[in-house]
Amino acid sequence: MIKFILRRLLLTIPTFLALTLVTFVAIRLVPGDPVEVRAGEHGISPERLAMLRHEMGLDQPVIVQYFQYLWQLAHGNFGTSLRTSGPVATEFFSLFPATLELAFCAMMFAILLGIPAGVLAAVRRGNVLDHGVMGISVIGYSMPIFWWGLLLIMFFSEWLNLTPISGRIDPIKFYFDTPTGFMLFDAWWSGQEGAVWDAAQHLILPTIVLGTVPLAVIARITRSSMLEVLSEDYVRTARAKGMSPLRVVGLHALRNALIPVVTSIGLAIGSLLAGAVLTETIFSWPGIGTWLIESINERDYPSLQGGIMLISSFVIVINLLVDVLYGAINPRLRHGR
């Protein structure tokens, strides 16, 4: 098991280096000059522009800038924001709890609906329920996030007036410190009546929008895995012994069918964080997604590079943990079978 973990750790090194190179190059392909953006709309002298470019290190050859960037990363330095002049890592971790809270709620929404839907579709294979679940899954997976978000806002917020449109809590009704950054917990900790419910209401639509794609994936993988397990001999034996259908499906089939589902859940975290960029923009959610969009508009290279690298590092760690967990469940993977 230790050798298996070490192999997976070694594989993360070239992945991380490739990620730094792709991020570094892709960001510099974005149109616009960060020096001119920082200088403002009013023109400044060429000497001042050259001084700013030197201060930002943009007068160096690209290859030199890349190795300087790697050297900073090796020392845990993700750069300084051009917009705020603050450390990128500090800004990231001050906003990351908002994104993490949204991603966690979206994943819970996807799991709690996706697994039962997939199980029911497999048990009722070929009937209306099965076709309905799979049809909705295809639609959910194919639906553009921005269109789905705007549709929900128009229906639930504008027409029915049931949910808030944007933000994490009503700042007019509630004001309190947020030491953890997780609004539901901080609202509960504040003791203000109605704060938790208001924070939960703000979470409803973003959770549905962000959780729709993983919900569709989990439902389809659960159905496929359940169909494979339900055809196994031990399931037929359990039925022949007279066990109730609920016990056969829940105890014998589902437990073994969950292995690929758990893997897909771990891998879906990356798509959640990627989808959070659009979701947070639509709902004005003050998290990493909104921060990255603002950094793109301002050509804030350090914030973009640091934010993408921190998110990617988080995804790499999650994937590593999923690999290790899967290797612990299935010993054949540890021996390369």
Task: Walk me through this protein's architecture.
- The protein is an all-alpha fold.
- It has one domain: MetI-like fold.
- 76% of the residues lie in helices and 0% in strands.
- The protein contains 14 helices and no strands.
- It has helices spanning 2-28, 34-39, 46-55, 62-74, 88-123, 128-142, 145-159, 183-190, 195-230, 233-240, 245-282, 288-297, 301-329, 331-334.
- Helix 1 (2-28) packs antiparallel against helix 13 (301-329), helix 6 packs across helix 9 and helix 9 crosses helix 11 (245-282).
- It is globular and about 85 Å long.
Query: Which radius of gyration do the C-alpha atoms yield?
Result: 24 Å
Number of strands: 0
Rough outline: globular
Q: CATH first level: which class?
A: Mainly Alpha
Integer tally of domains: 1
CATH topology: MetI-like fold
How many strands, which pairing sense, and closed or not: the largest β-sheet? none
Q: Unreliable segments (pLDDT under 50, ≥5 consecutive)?
A: none
Name the average pLDDT.
Answer: 82
Number of helices: 14
* SSE class: mainly alpha
Q: Beta-strand percentage? A: under 5%
